[in-house]
Amino acid sequence: xxxxxxxxxxxxxxxxxxxxxxxxxxxxxxxxxxxxxxxxFPKLRPMxxxxxxxxxxxFASPREPLAEGDEVALLPPVSxxxxxxxxxxxxxxxxxxxxxxxxxxxxxxxxEARLIQGCDGASVTFQxxxxxxxxxxxxxxxxxxxxEAMAIRVMAGIGRELAGQYAISRxxxxxxxxxxxxxxxxxxxxxxxxxxxxxxxxxxxxxxxLKRLVPVWKKEFFEDGEIWVEGEWDQxxxxxxxx
Length: 243
Known about the structure:
Number of helices: 5
Structural class: alpha+beta
Order of helices and strands: EHEHEEEEEHEEEEHEEEHEE
Distance between the termini: 26 Å
Number of strands: 16
Strand content: 25-35%
Helix content: 25-40%
Shape: globular
Radius of gyration: 19 Å
Oligomer: single chain
Largest sheet: 5 strands, mixed
């Protein structure tokens, strides 16, 4: 059977490209994809405990069986690379929640106006911005890369879960992709609620889950070089290594 394989972040540099076609025997599992490329590119093997596998835009266990035409992605730890221009990808939920990936400047006032209703007595807006240094090393700019088809679904799932766990009215999450300069916002979480406490709590939990679960990768540029920023997956995200 033929499988489409995608690589992101540091992995596309190790494996020499962004995607490949792989032929596997019937009955193969998602873990077989990692094993194939770990044999071809030995640098992958020590990374097994931090690489996550996705099958058809959802997290997958290495034991999960594959089928003809599946899309399998090997995902390094999230840290959210370069991406070309493209339209905003968005989900406008029936309950009024809003999730988007964009290459344009994040318009916070527009998001707030979209979410806040007459029943709301509070709104909390968090934005992550590009700072000018990392551990004292001067940063020139950042670039964000994303597994878009999966990321937008994961963001929506996080937002809907939070709306069910906290007494909030609506939530919005927007992540920017591509090149960003110092001081620009890379991500925003906006929560509207009747009262301030659940709005604050949901906004904090929202950005924390987004950073651990949404497949976004960050590349940092300095005067003397560049580096993919190593992040960390949520502890429950399935790793490439079978345990």
